[in-house]
Amino acid sequence: MRHPQETPSIARTVSRAKTPPTQGPAVPANGPKLFTLRQACKEDGAVLPLSYAAARQRKAKCKATGRAFPEGITHSGVTRYSRQELTEWFANEPDQKAAETEA
Question: Which of 25, 29, 71, 95 is the most buried (most CB within 10 A)?
Fold first, then answer.
């Protein structure tokens, strides 16, 4: 008689079989330059004039309230965004518009 520890889990075996192998980059080399949210917020050539913490808060707020946030391209668990989609999102953000009218 086998112990339960010795019997492989069916769910674990099936999930391994369903996982396709990762193949190549998500975007061709000649595509637009993509940034993670952290990279987009760095000071040198920043795409967004926000700290990384502020950008994460705004992203979470968008998802919680049903507002649009760029979809980006997710590859190997990391989501990357184009400069255009981030700048368009930031320009149309209600928080950004409120800050501009107060200034």
Answer: 95
What's the token pair of residue 84? 């255009």
Q: Is residue 16 part of a domain?
A: no
Contact 79, 72 (CB under 8 A): yes
Model confidence pLDDT, tens digit, residues 49-73: 989 999 999 999 999 999 999 999 9
> Which element (helix H / strand E) includes 13?
helix 10-18
Structural domain tally of the chain? 1
Domain that holds residue 51: 32-102
DSSP letters spanning 14-61: HHHHH-PPP-S-SS-TTS--EE-HHHHHSSTT-SSSS-HHHHHHHHHH
Residue with tokens 């760029």: 70
